[in-house]
Specification:
By secondary structure, the chain is of the alpha/beta class. The chain has 11 helices and 13 strands. Strand 2, helix 2 and strand 3 form a beta-alpha-beta unit. It binds nicotinamide-adenine-dinucleotide and uridine-5'-diphosphate-4-deoxy-4-fluoro-alpha-D-galactose. The site of uridine-5'-diphosphate-4-deoxy-4-fluoro-alpha-D-galactose has 20 residues, from helix 7 and strand 8.
């Protein structure tokens, strides 16, 4: 029998791509999303991509305990993948309470409802931001955690709460997945990332410049101690990430206990590497100007992804060129999103 997986935030960027990987792996995703940063229109796209019925989608909030209790009572849910949350670092500094409310309180309400319902398999979206400014790269999972903003602290608080929960009683199967920089889109070009307003992140900004919606990219700093002076990150294709969730889910369903894993490629790419790869993908030049450093940015970091490979048998397969080609297919086909 197919196992149903509750996917909170499943209409969002990473969640929607993970729903495809889940469906292709024989799971049945059930989405819970408040559409605060997404659109229900994604469901029809998911059906087109998978050739299966659109996932059951419930509009609602992870902080709504009564709704969660109803969901667990009405559906036979075997596991939960918890993406729902807020993710803009700058907003978290301006409005920390809404970050602690959505990300921390929401995660606690969800875990309490799971415990009552007897569902104890949980995959959680954490972030490399929990490492703050690392001492060295590649970063292994046992590197010190010292997040530098409320968003990062909200992720670390949930990791700690879920860790304590996992150790408090037998039966829990919890994977805390620390993503590096997810980019790209499904290769169909039918789903992708569509930030509201001016993008904060590099790849959506570059895409909007390439499609003509913005005049140029501002490179935040050209004087870092990196090979070309620009910031270096570990960009990982969102479909590789999606497959990482399926691998983590399969592992959790088969093994009790707590896992903390990096999901990244193990390779660093600079801002100018991304721009060059994007230019190859779209066949146009991407105008850019070098501006000052962005406050709070770390010069360079990338993952040590060896634990994910050893434990899950997962590793990222897609190249930076493929990430850019797929972003471009999505952006050029859907310049205004869904
Ligand atoms: P996203 O905003 O596209 O997706 C999050 C989804 O959750 C959205 O559909 C939103 O409407 C929904 N949501 C938010 N709060 C909710 C609530 N209280 N109840 C129900 N639904 C709610 O973001 P994403 O990039 O897909 O990120 C997914 C998760 O991965 C987040 O937890 C994020 O913090 C984490 N993460 C993202 C990145 C990244 O760079 N994209 C990096 C590391 C970690
Ligand atoms: N950058 C620019 N110009 C832009 C946007 C970004 O030069 O317009 C540069 C940044 O300075 C950095 C690189 O591109 O060197 C990547 O920046 P992003 O904003 O795309 O990503 P960050 O690494 O800053 O942060 C992202 C997410 C965080 C998450 C973190 C995890 O935004 O939420 O990855 O590693 F926590």
């Amino acid at each position: 029998m197919k196992i149903s997986v509750l996917v909170t935030g499943g209409a969002g960027y990473i969640g929607s791509h993970t729903c495809i990987a889940l469906a292709e792996a024989g799971f049945t995703p059930i989405i819970l999303d408040n559409y605060g940063n997404s659109s229900p229109k994604v469901m029809e796209r998911l059906a087109r991509i998978t050739g299966q019925a659109a996932p059951l989608a419930i509009e609602g909030d992870v902080r709504d305990r009564a709704l969660l209790d109803r969901l667990f009572a009405e559906h036979e849910i075997g596991a939960v993948i918890h993406f729902a949350g807020l993710k803009a670092v700058g907003d978290s500094v301006a409005d920390p309470l809404s970050y602690y409310d959505n990300n921390v309180y929401g995660s606690l309400v969800l875990a309490a409802a799971m415990r009552s319902a007897g569902v104890r398999t949980l995959i959680f979206s954490s972030s490399a931001t929990v490492y703050g400014e690392p001492d060295e790269s590649p970063i292994p999972e046992d590197a010190p955690t010292r997040p530098a903003n409320p968003y990062g602290r909200s992720k670390l608080m949930v990791e700690e709460a879920y860790g304590d929960l996992g150790r408090s009683e037998p039966g829990w199967r919890i994977a805390l997945l620390r993503y590096f920089n997810p980019v790209g889109a499904h290769e169909s070009g039918l789903i992708g990332e569509h930030p509201q307003g001016k993008p904060n992140n590099l790849m959506p900004f570059v895409s909007q410049v390439a499609v003509g919606q913005r005049p140029h990219l501002t490179v935040h700093g050209g004087d870092y101690p990196t090979p070309d002076g620009t910031g270096v990150r570990d960009y990982v294709h969102v479909m590789d990430l999606a497959e990482g969730h399926v691998a983590a889910l399969r592992h959790a369903l088969a093994h009790e206990g707590l896992l903390t894993l990096n999901l990244g490629t193990g390779r660093g790419g600079s801002v100018l590497d991304v721009v060059a790869a994007f230019e190859r993908a779209c066949g146009k030049s991407v105008p850019r100007v070098i501006g000052p450093r962005r406050p709070g940015d770390v010069p360079a970091y990338w993952a040590d992804p060896s634990a994910a490979k050893a434990v899950l048998g997962w590793e990222a397969r897609r190249s930076l060129d493929q990430m850019c080609a797929d972003s471009w297919r999505w952006q050029s086909g859907n310049p205004n999103g869904y």
